[in-house]
Design brief:
Layout (H helix, E strand, L loop, with lengths): L1 E7 L18 H18 L4 E4 L3 H14 L6 E2 L8 H9 L7 E6 L3 H10 L13 E6 L12 E7 L6
Parallel strand pairs: 1-4, 2-3, 2-4
Antiparallel strand pairs: 1-5, 5-6
């Protein structure tokens, strides 16, 4: 059984004077990322891998969550996650190392909502990932390469507001 946590980056500055990819987390984003990391620690424990987009806001979110989880290995920075469509994200998931049972994937909408909907078999109108929210999916598979649409078992979405 594999566990995939699809975590959208936390709240960022609204404008991008130096470009979208370098937008940084706001104070609220730092707070929400830490809170979600603590919540994840209680719900799923320390993951085997954390894979993040190379955008600054996603990397900051991943670093804060990793610290809260006690994750002491290097993050995997995957540039393909930034602005990825669902097919690209499925490809990223299929290439995860099989020794990793639980993986946190950190990135962006709309791709993350589309990936969650595709894996869980839910309609895209049922999946909403606001900033710092995550979807929790279980996959009854031995190898990440076996991931296909509909192979995920929906365990829910948690937002910073709903975790309490």
């Amino acid at each position: 059984m594999k566990t995939l946590v699809i975590l959208r980056h936390a709240k960022t500055q609204p404008d991008a004077p130096r470009g979208d990819k370098v937008r940084e987390l706001k104070e609220r984003g730092h707070h929400d990322a830490a809170a979600m990391g603590a919540y994840l620690r209680a719900q799923v424990g320390t993951p085997d891998a954390i894979v993040t987009s190379d955008a600054i806001r996603a990397r900051q979110t991943a670093e804060i969550v990793a610290a809260e989880l006690g994750f002491d290995r290097p993050l995997t920075v995957e540039p393909r996650v930034y602005t990825a469509d669902v097919e690209t994200l499925l490809d990223v998931v299929r290439q995860l190392p099989d020794e990793a049972e639980t993986v946190i994937l950190v990135g962006h909408n709309p791709g993350f909502e589309e990936l969650t909907a595709a894996l869980s078999g839910r309609g895209e109108d049922e999946v909403r990932l606001p900033t710092a929210a995550f979807a929790l999916l279980e996959l009854n598979l031995s190898h990440w390469s076996e991931v296909r649409p509909g192979t995920g078992i929906w365990r829910g979405i948690v937002t910073p507001r709903s975790r309490d």
